[in-house]
């Protein structure tokens, strides 16, 4: 009997010790993305790691996997839904299979500049999109800026007709596909990790992206011409697996959300500078010419691409398109709050 009691006690102690060890183990948060550390998103992910581990010492451990090193396009969402990765920040062009309305961000020339994108994201409509995929197990936590998109090609492009017949890499977005079809170019959906090689081998002749993505992927080495078109935005939604997020202890979840809010401010404050510096680095590299458009030339691109809006109006929603257009007015957020 005594022996049994002793054994039971020892067993209970070792179980509760195991419990203690377990409780002391930090929660591991895997954050994967497809771009370089030096870009706005890359910097944001690293800052999130630093601040989360500082403010929740020993309670969370954030592992950042840049450059498609854990999962690339096409696989990362699946991995998030399976719980194999806990945070992602896909570009807004990559949500079409989960929420058609998020395609609003891909409509060419809908936002005049990144400030308009920012106002739309802060608006009630923009905030509602963060929660629009919860039924599918995805929770949006924040928007991060990269910046406005520029065109690139193996020949100079001043007007939409210059793009005719060229093959362009696009993200997996039907809107972006259509954006090139309306100017009689040939879009090809391709993952981000394949862009450099696709351009180098001539599988595609051109693409669209931000200066920071171009420079960090060395796209200037394989594209002699860039057109400063600002025709759309590349921004991100920081997302998590809804079940994982709701299952976190309340104090940890709210601290992580606070950290993310602070990181978001910093990412969005720095994004412009990072893109400006990347553009200067491309100029310095001397490999490529950057073509500046006159207002009239830019307007030709706008008019040529704008029919895409109508084509996707039913899927995206007229109200949302109107709200996005309204965000070009600097007073729009104040008016809607
Ligand atoms: C892309 O062109 O696929 C990029 O938007 C990647 C990224 O996450 O910036």
Automatic annotation (TrEMBL):
<dbReference type="InterPro" id="IPR004682">
    <property type="entry name" value="TRAP_DctP"/>
</dbReference>
<dbReference type="InterPro" id="IPR018389">
    <property type="entry name" value="DctP_fam"/>
</dbReference>
<protein>
    <submittedName>
        <fullName>C4-dicarboxylate ABC transporter</fullName>
    </submittedName>
</protein>
<keyword id="KW-0813">Transport</keyword>
<feature type="signal peptide">
    <location>
        <begin position="1"/>
        <end position="23"/>
    </location>
</feature>
<comment type="similarity">
    <text>Belongs to the bacterial solute-binding protein 7 family.</text>
</comment>
<dbReference type="GO" id="GO:0015740">
    <property type="term" value="P:C4-dicarboxylate transport"/>
</dbReference>
<dbReference type="GO" id="GO:0055085">
    <property type="term" value="P:transmembrane transport"/>
</dbReference>
<dbReference type="GO" id="GO:0030288">
    <property type="term" value="C:outer membrane-bounded periplasmic space"/>
</dbReference>
<keyword id="KW-0732">Signal</keyword>
<dbReference type="InterPro" id="IPR038404">
    <property type="entry name" value="TRAP_DctP_sf"/>
</dbReference>
<dbReference type="Pfam" id="PF03480">
    <property type="entry name" value="DctP"/>
</dbReference>
